[in-house]
Amino acid sequence: MTVRRANNEPRWMRVLLLVVALGFLALFLGFPLVTVFYEALKKGVDAYLAGLADPEARSAIWLTLGVAAAAIPLNIAFGVAAAWAIAKFDFRGKSLLITLIDLPFAVSPVVAGLLFVLIFGSQGWMGPWLAEHDIKIIFAIPGIVLATLFVTFPFVARELIPLMQAQGKDEEEAAVSLGASGWQMFWRVTVPNIKWGLLYGVILANARAMGEFGAVSVVSGHIRGETNTLPLHVEILYNEYQSVAAFAAASILALLALVTLVAKTVVEWRMRKETEMLTADLPPEKTE
């Protein structure tokens, strides 16, 4: 009934809603995106490439990619383990675990960065012990990885939990009853069933990891050529009125965002096609 009412809405209303949605996207997404590339290239390709060839810019690019590469495998391990525990088992504290997974969505990244400083900073709870063992976390790369991990860890888990709950435990139990070991069941039954959802969560987490600013800004120390990620490098250049170099660095983030968008669209298309194939294979329901 809901679908029928929606289809019977006046044509002018559908057109109005479409115009509002497209206008909003053009104003707040398309226009800023075009502006980034225009400002980056307005003084020519040579100036654009010179901005990217700067050693500090190259360091920021490699650090951004390296931090994302370090955080994503940990995200996958945590997300799969958390989703498996929540979807397959009943235990006390299950609701609390789900709430804690959502915590980074509710806590400001700046506050998260300050918490890491409070714990691992030189005057923090573990500061004297870390200094005694010559371990540096705050104002160093380990702190950036920790901050990035904190803000990104819900994405994989949140994508897998409803998917694994909907799939149930029947196929895993059938594999075990046929003699499969735990690893065989995981790699041959669970992973194929969750592969597209897992990839979707990884894409979202990777996009957030490369664009994170608040938490990383607090724990990085803004050391040029060492702890500046791309978002921090863009801020420094812009504050120093190096607009072309700033927008050139920002264009790399924009390109990564566009690649992420394309990958996300492909994964969504594959998930929809696979769902349609599984639905087509099901026997038709009896009418009597």
UniProtKB/TrEMBL annotation:
InterPro entries assigned: CysW_permease, MetI-like, MetI-like_sf, Sulph_transpt2
Domain ABC transmembrane type-1: 61-268
Residue ranges of the TM segments: 12-40, 60-84, 96-125, 137-157, 198-223, 243-263
MF terms (GO), sorted A to Z: ABC-type sulfate transporter activity
Topological category with respect to the lipid bilayer: Multi-pass membrane protein
Secretion signal, residue range per the UniProt entry: none
Keywords carried by this UniProt record: Cell inner membrane, Cell membrane, Membrane, Sulfate transport, Transmembrane, Transmembrane helix, Transport
Pfam family, one: BPD_transp_1
GO cellular component: plasma membrane
Main location: membrane
Subcellular localization, as worded in the UniProt entry: Cell inner membrane
Quaternary organization: The complex is composed of two ATP-binding proteins (CysA), two transmembrane proteins (CysT and CysW) and a solute-binding protein (CysP).
Job description of the protein: Part of the ABC transporter complex CysAWTP (TC 3.A.1.6.1) involved in sulfate/thiosulfate import. Probably responsible for the translocation of the substrate across the membrane.
Name by which UniProt lists this protein: Sulfate transport system permease protein CysW
Organism this protein belongs to: Oryzomicrobium terrae
